[in-house]
Specification:
heterodimer, A: about 300 residues, mainly alpha, globular, B: about 400 residues, alpha/beta, Rossmann fold, 2 domains, six-stranded mixed sheet, 12 helices, 14 strands, about 15% strand
Chain lengths: ~300, ~400
């Protein structure tokens, strides 16, 4: 039972990274922009956050620095694809390569740096409950923030006027333009917010999750987040579910290995990807549901007038 | 100008900005490669200059007093990772610097970092030879085939390949007995564990890694017969988030002392976060988590590199052999043992180290049984290098099976 509680706790922690990045990408894509540069943004934010944490010792400033770094990179990407109408996929790939190189360059002197011992968090009162305490209430605050953010984004998209406008821009930028909405500026805002969230995810990896900086350390998390957004049919709750599912199966397969289960580790390593795809494809198997949820203008450039 | 023309122009401008961004991305990456090397490098990955440390020593060879006509021996190193990885490549580069220091202006070394284990490596080796390097070191297993190919073409260049098993007339191989470090770490782990459960984050299930896991366990059992070892494979050498997750799952499973055969300090840091213990691997990692760090099993390539360069200088260098050095030759050590380790355990480690040094203590000595009860090594026999090179079973006390071993 104790082990199970710890597994749940590790799952929430592992899913949080993916949740932040995938929610950011979801906002991008809801406005019609695909940002394949997520991995590069996360790497740059990871070193920005780590460097800030090294110099200030403050995790929250580090997340802020990660978010700002992510937002800046995303803004550059946004100006390229929104105003200059460059190909979104090519520009995104360029951004991810650029981010990998830039972060490695900036990070040279930080590979030997270390952060102070980490504080542990717990919610007073709740943390001591049997089972649910260790499972749910001893997490880093960012873990709860990810859940709150999911609810906030769902509310924003489906219950607020601004969210409606954002979705309209993603569905039919021409119509939104005809109604007088500044399509390009809305798209840029979405890209910047999305970049900032990817940035938070990157900073969480280096500052909290692994507690170190090394070149290329995100190791594909940005790409997984991109895939997750699509498999979750652009719905915030499903993105969160997918992120936890991926994190959960990852932790479970490692735990199974530790228990000496007789399945080859290569097969077990495949499991998180397989399970996430299968589950999300199953819940999204309704084709018309996908059509309804998929932003119609995704990946397409918009030319006003 | 028409709207369409403007638009086309803008598109062109955008495309060129992307191109520039992409290019600058690349050049940034190149810079990473070269900034850690001294000044004077070109933007290609090949460098021919000397390291900063020794630059002063080599800078004015002409003015050296007893300078004969003989030019310094040019020695080149190809690394798989960045010199700042804090582990494997870092250790090799420290040895290169030591060679510079030891031989002064008799040698001139250079290195290329982050050389991929692919066809690119062949180009790098040819470049190195083209720059006049007469002794070339390749420091990862994956350079074996490219190096063989180049060695066959360039008979006047001497090649040294780490961790491989194929040789040629002008190519020989070398390795370190990392399992001796793992064994000594195991002795400490056995003395420190409270739950009698150890955890190992394995990289890739090859004999070298399996041998380390077994040796670690045997070391622990030598002081605490009740320990068992849990193993989790991440199937990669370097993936910090995954190493973190693997370490976390071992801790969740009850392990309180961790060991790893992966390249980053993530496992050690995770142990630190959870209030458990772990070891440094390849290089001294004390600084990363002082409270969790019990000791570091380090590789010291200096003796071998100095020996190889000496051979080349003396003209006694011969291809075709394999050198496998350990504690005895000063190639393996356990360093920075924590104050938390009780004195009797420390003494035991020192005894083992002394025994290995004198050649009186043998780690892989029968009887050794696998964890499914088969006798792998009869009582009284010592394992030879061939046996050690093909280990694909877990010893008693390790849980689970070596992935892929059952097919054999």
């Amino acid at each position: 039972m104790d082990q199970f509680a710890l597994l749940v706790a590790a799952t929430l922690n592992s899913g949080t990274v993916l949740a932040f990045a995938a929610l950011g990408l979801l906002i991008n894509e809801r406005a019609g922009i695909v940002n394949l540069g997520a991995e590069g943004i996360m790497l740059v934010a990871a070193i920005a956050g780590f460097a800030t944490a090294v110099h200030t010792g403050n995790d929250w400033l580090a997340f802020g620095a990660g978010a700002v770094a992510g937002a800046l990179l995303a803004a550059a990407f946004g100006i390229l694809v929104i105003w200059l109408n460059t190909n979104q996929y090519a520009s995104g790939l360029a951004l991810s390569l650029f981010g990998a190189g830039l972060s490695a360059f900036v990070g040279i002197r930080y590979t030997q740096e270390k952060l102070g011992e980490q504080r542990s968090f717990s919610i007073p009162g709740l943390a001591d409950l049997p089972f649910v305490g260790p499972a749910l209430f001893r997490q880093h605050p960012m873990v709860y923030l990810a859940i709150a953010l999911t609810i906030a984004i769902a509310w924003f998209l489906y219950r607020s006027r601004a969210g409606l406008v954002l979705r309209a821009v993603g569905e039919s930028p021409e119509s939104a333009h005809a109604l007088g909405y500044p399509v390009r500026r809305i798209r840029l805002a979405a890209v910047v917010v999305g970049g900032a969230l990817c940035g938070v995810a990157g900073a969480y990896i280096s500052v909290v999750y692994t507690h170190l900086w090394v070149e290329g350390m995100t190791a594909g998390k940005g790409w997984i987040a991109l895939a997750l957004t699509t498999f979750a049919t652009w719905r915030p709750a499903r993105v969160l579910l997918g992120a936890y599912l991926f994190g959960g199966v990852t932790m479970l397969q490692l735990q199974l290995q530790g228990e000496g289960v007789q399945i080859s580790s290569q097969v077990l390593t495949m499991l998180p990807y397989l399970a996430t795809i299968v589950v999300l494809v199953l819940i999204s198997r309704n084709a018309s549901f996908i059509r309804v949820n998929m932003p119609a203008s995704i990946g397409k450039p918009f030319f006003p007038g | 100008m028409t709207r369409t023309a403007t638009r086309t122009l803008l598109q062109l401008a955008g495309a060129s900005i992307v191109a520039i961004a992409a290019l600058s991305g690349c050049s940034k990456e190149e810079k990473t490669t070269t900034t850690t090397t001294p000044a004077g490098t070109t933007t290609t990955t090949t460098t021919t200059t000397t390291a900063p440390m020794a630059a002063s020593a080599v800078a004015t060879p002409a003015s050296a007093p007893v300078k004969s006509a003989s030019a310094p021996l040019k020695v080149a190193f190809a690394y798989v990772g960045p010199v700042g990885d804090g582990g494997w490549t870092f250790a090799h580069d420290n040895a290169r610097k030591a060679v510079e220091k030891h031989f002064g202006d008799k040698v001139q070394t250079s290195f290329v970092e982050k050389v991929p284990e692919a066809a690119d490596a062949e180009r790098v080796f040819r470049d190195m030879a083209g720059q006049g390097n007469k002794l070339i070191f390749g420091t990862t297993f994956g350079y074996m085939e490219p190096m063989l190919k180049v060695a066959a073409d360039l008979k006047d260049v001497k090649f040294e390949h780490a961790t491989g098993y194929k040789q040629a007339d002008n190519m020989r191989t070398y390795d370190s007995r990392t399992y001796e470090g793992a064994y000594m770490a195991g002795v400490i782990a056995g003395g420190m564990t409270k739950t009698n459960t150890l955890g190992v984050v394995g990289s890739v299930p090859i004999p070298e890694v399996v041998r380390n896991i077994n040796s670690f366990t045997m070391g622990a059992q030598s002081v605490n017969p009740n320990v068992k070892t849990k193993v989790v494979w991440v199937n990669e050498w370097f993936n910090p988030p995954k190493e973190t997750e693997a370490a976390q799952s071992l801790i969740n499973g009850g392990a309180d002392v961790l060991m790893q055969n992966t390249d980053s300090s993530a496992v050690l840091q995770t142990a630190g976060k959870a209030g458990k213990y772990a070891f440094g691997w390849d290089s001294d990692m004390t600084a990363y988590a002082p409270n969790a760090h019990l000791a570091s099993a380090v590789i010291n390539w200096v003796p071998y590199y100095i020996n190889a360069v000496q051979d080349a200088l003396d003209g006694t260098w011969k291809g075709g052999g394999h050198t496998w050095w350990g504690v005895k030759e000063g190639a393996i050590d356990i360093v920075s043992i924590s104050e938390k380790v009780p004195a009797d355990v420390k003494t035991k480690v020192e005894t083992v180290k002394a025994g290995l040094k004198a050649g009186t203590f043998v780690i892989w000595k029968g009887p050794i049984t696998s964890n499914d009860g088969k006798e792998m090594l009869a009582a009284g026999t010592n394992a030879d290098d061939k046996f050690l090179g093909g280990i694909n079973f877990f010893v008693k006390g390790v849980e689970g099976k070596v992935p892929g071993a059952e097919k054999k």
